[in-house]
Amino acid sequence: MVIDIHAHGCLPGGNHKVSESLLLKAIEKYDITKVYISNLLAIFPTIEQVDEANSLVYDFKKAHPDKIGGFVYISPEHENSVEVLKKGIEEQGFEGVKIWISEYCDSPKMDKIAEKTIEYGVPMLIHSFHKSRNQTGKESVGKNVRELAKRFPELKIIMAHLGGNPYNGIPMIRDCKNVWVDLSCTMFHSDYVDYTVENIGSERILFGTDMVGPYLNNVGKVLHANISDHEKDLIFYKNALKILDTSFRL
User: Cα separation of 7 and 11, whole Å?
Assistant: First the structure.
């Protein structure tokens, strides 16, 4: 079994029909059990763009409910962010919340979103990517995730991309038991999985691809890591089943 916790049906400048077709082909070719997606149409989206992004995910998951799940995309600077969250969970049946780069994740604007997410018991997937230069928009890094996690210890957080650079991101959240990490789009060094397991354990690592990016590169990082088969199973699907269970509370 393989659960991809982090993928996309459309990215800025992309064509959602092409992306969705590629996702379905990858699911069939590589026997992926389920893929959880969000759509991102702009770095600083309008209210209308957020609504369109979530509507596209809803339509896609409705057409393929056994294979596609969804995370409702929230832009914290919008006054209707909590209403968007409520609609996504209660009406559209999304299984989590997605925060991208329109606002730092530890901004006070996140507080009401975090509180509502805790109430629903769903995870919050946060883009986090430390770069040597030229961070994009208000792009969170490990220290931002840490601040949010400490402020809301009952919030189930997924720090995406191992924080971009795990040597920066992982130490920041090592002692935050409410923070998991995903492996998506971290393709730079072969020891990233080993390093992360050594530092936070295999129980807090989730499989993700950032598809429609390369699937094989991401699965290969796990298959060739120096960890046990049990730990690989935790990463590939068992940890995802746990964090997606709304009855699981911290």
Answer: 10
Report d(CA 171, CA 242) in Å as an integer. Answer: 23
- The secondary structure of 2-49 as a DSSP string is -EEEEEEEE-TT--HHHHHHHHHHHHHHHT-SEEEEEE---SS--HHH
Q: Does residue 155 fall inside a structural domain?
A: yes
Domain membership of residue 32 as a residue range? 3-243
Is residue 248 in a domain? no
> Which domain CATH number covers 89?
3.20.20.140
3-state DSSP assignment of residue 98 = strand
User: Would residue 90 count as lying in a domain?
Assistant: yes
Cα-Cα-Cα-Cα dihedral sign, residues 55, 59, 64, 66:
positive
pTM score, whole prediction: 0.95
- pLDDT 10s digits, 180-228: 999 997 666 778 999 999 999 999 999 999 987 778 888 888 999 999 9
Q: What is the DSSP letter of 232?
A: H
* Tally of domains within the chain: 1
